[in-house]
Amino acid sequence: MKAVILAAGKGTRMGELTSDLPKPMLRVHGKPILEHIITGLQSAGIREFFFVTGYRAEVIENYFGDGSKLGIKVQYGRQLVQDGTGKAPELAKKFVGSDDFVLTYGDILVKPDTYKQMIARYGEQPVAGLLTCTGSEDVTKGGLLFFDKTFCLCKLVEKPTVAQIEALRGEGYLKAGDTAWYNAGIYIFKPLLFEFTARLEKSPRGEYELTDAIIAMLASQHRFAGLEIQGRWVDVRDPQVLASLEHAQLD
């Protein structure tokens, strides 16, 4: 198993904090967010990493180098045009080769044991990938995931509109009192993913969306396991969240 980490963004909501640093290099407990992610993946046995960089790429590249100081191997690819999460992983296609890989964003923090749980769940049955999720009663937060009785994905709706939410209720996908499952942004994929990212067209937002590739794979009868993240899941989206992490237990 290898790991691909998307770390190309600036993080504009961080304001002046990212004027000289890409968001994944902001520090929590004295270490870059990215290093916390790497440590967690290392604890799951992963030693080969690919970082997709972009904004202030040299900061990440100079800090981690070839990875040897952390006992890992690191390769890099620069996303020169920020055109969405669907095309960014393609920079790692040669690195991935024929191996399965974890794909995560460089600003999401979870308990280190989450990665072990993902790999164990992924190995339970033949699937094309795994999606992590978090639960909420609010159905307006982000990408909605729907699972069958074996907790495998049966439907994905990215950023549903009010009309889509009403339709999902009418179709029985959303029921009062049930947990709404949200895409947590950490995945495992087979290299098969690249066949579908290659066919992507830009979404109405003008970007290539990773979730559109997943939807296309699902339509082609490829199965995805689901896993609820236990404990902490933090999208380090703004200075307030970053500050709150200084008082949080990270292990």
Put the structure in a nutshell.
The strands form 3 sheets. Strands 1, 4, 5, 6, 8, 9, 10, 11 and 12 form a 9-stranded mixed sheet that branches. 25% of the residues lie in helices and 26% in strands.
Could you characterize what this model shows?
The protein is globular and about 50 Å long. It has one domain: Spore Coat Polysaccharide Biosynthesis Protein SpsA, Chain A (Alpha-Beta Complex), CATH 3.90.550.10. A hairpin with a 2-residue loop joins strand 2 and strand 3. The protein is an alpha/beta fold and 251 residues long. The strands form 3 sheets. Strands 1, 4, 5, 6, 8, 9, 10, 11 and 12 form a 9-stranded mixed sheet that branches. The chain is 25% helix and 26% strand.
Termini distance? 22 Å
Biggest sheet features: 9 strands, mixed
The CATH architecture would be Alpha-Beta Complex
Rounded radius of gyration (Å): 18 Å
- Globally, the shape reads globular
How many H/I helical runs? 8
Task: Sketch the topology as an H/E string, one letter per element.
Answer: EEEHEHEHEEHEEEHEHHEEH
Mean pLDDT rating: 92
